[in-house]
Amino acid sequence: MVRAGCLIRPLAALACWISAIRWNRGLAWIIAESALLCLLWVDVLASPNQSDPANPVGVSIASPRNGMACNHLSEVSGVMFCPSGTVGHVHIRLKHIATGTTWNWREEGWSPDSWIQFDAPEGVVTPWALAPPKLAEGRYEIECRTSLDPAPPRLAARHSFVIDRTSPRVSFLPLHDQQTFFDLSELAGEIDEQAEIQFTISCARNLELRRYWNGSIWTGDASDPHLNLPAASAGGFWFPAAETRLPRPSQIEPGTYLIAVSAFDRAGNEGRAAITILKPTPTLTATSAHAN
Prior knowledge:
Blueprint: H1 4-20, H2 27-45, E1 58-63, E2 69-70, E3 76-81, E4 88-96, E5 102-104, E6 109-111, E7 116-120, E8 126-130, E9 138-148, E10 154-163, E11 170-172, E12 189-191, E13 196-204, E14 211-213, E15 218-219, E16 229-234, E17 237-240, E18 255-264, E19 270-279
Parallel strand pairs: 2-10
Antiparallel strand pairs: 1-3, 3-8, 4-7, 4-9, 5-6, 9-10, 11-12, 12-17, 13-14, 13-16, 13-18, 14-15, 16-17, 18-19
């Protein structure tokens, strides 16, 4: 059962927050500021330290998003709020999960347990931002805590994220480079991770200009937005998506064909592969009739 005393202090703090809204800034500002206050209030109620006195200082993390993967991180940022008449502090820590070390923002190095602290301005929602170091590949955590003098800090927000600079490995199978082919029924390949995959098919016949397959017809327009054909993947293999139309055998004329595939993982890294395959010119065989 929730004790009444546990709710009186938070509700009183919420009343202070509502009174801090700058009502003379227009409807759009009131709505935006109220929404931010509500989000921060959710963080306060979700605090694991329910037995402590209510801490009305709120902070949230906008970047990086919780659970995101990226190949670099340019900013750690969010918003904070402290009701009027209080002196609130925000504490932020960047932790490398594998080693357990934390980034010392002032000395610009990794150390056992480092936090950066700054005051939260009274009575207004304020954005905050920090420039992180260049991070090696691995898993990291951003943790935010808030405090009121003289109470100890409480957990307000925590996001984990991954730095990944390894491109997905994508290849063709069973087709291989310089292979002779007659149709594209075996167009597929292997991939080592989940990714967004697309491929292109182009053809050059003798001295003619290169033509491109756009999912319906061959075109000479290299800027056609439909040239990137979607693919799907499952079980470590990729293949044309169900909605992707490949050229029929009757639409594949003799010539040299270039098939290029690109795969983008969730961190934004790109893997590529390409093969050149050949559709041979039909050969006519002469037959002779022998009289008996």
